Model the fold of this input.
Amino acid sequence: MQQLFLAVLACLLTTLTTFSQNNTPINVATYNLRYDNPGDGVNAWPNRKEMVKSLIRYHEFDIFGTQEALRHQLNDLAQMPEFAFLGKGRDDGKEAGEHSAIFYRKDRFKPLESGDFWLSQTPEKPSLGWDATCCNRICSWAKFRDLKTNKEFYFFSAHFDHQGVEARRQSGQLMVKKIKEIAKNAPVIFVGDLNSTPETEQVKAIQTLLSDSYQITTMPPYGPVGTFNGFKLDAPLQNRIDYIFVSKNIRVQKYAVLTDAQNQRYPSDHQPVVARVLVD
Done:
């Protein structure tokens, strides 16, 4: 009888452990890091990079998309040995120019596939899209296996144009098309700086496929609504332009816009946006 009891107990513990592992949440974030511009003076990257690292570690990001960072900035963040990153430079499809990179914990996620496409009429090559006038825009993506839950999902990180109205509108439609083409019916997380507020056509286009984590979080959103601060501590933070979108097979437990500052300075000119999610 005692052996039977112990066998049943062991089976129950195994079941509970498996259930717990299969329901391990993921801390997702998106963070426009501001490119390394020496003209930023006290807010230039060398004065901010350790602040960014400490924020990422303190808030225990598991996987996050970045925008604007140059390759050496990504290399600086990759000095955190627990992380690796994917993504190419927007100027040449290699390392030149800003990136929309994806960082992930190496002990938690295994990349299975990855790629990049440009937000333009020729997404397969470095190119300027529609009425954008100064910058190529890129989206980097990867398929991951969660080593804790054995579940697979796709992660996309993008940065929409800051000037071209048509470029932003068309980028929203292109993202929907490419996500359908690449991920099909698999779980999807799409993060980015869209330079667009929620009522715009491009954000509404994305919401025909994915849900805005701000709107579906179980716990009410935490922090300010707005996500751009311009390095000003007294910024009104009213306009939401950075997003975390998820497919219907992903639940959002928590959502926040973080306002961490050190020595009276923000780590970037955007606030990081974070969400705790469960992949079903």
Notes: Residues 4-20 have pLDDT under 50 and may be disordered. The first strand starts at residue 26 and ends at 32.
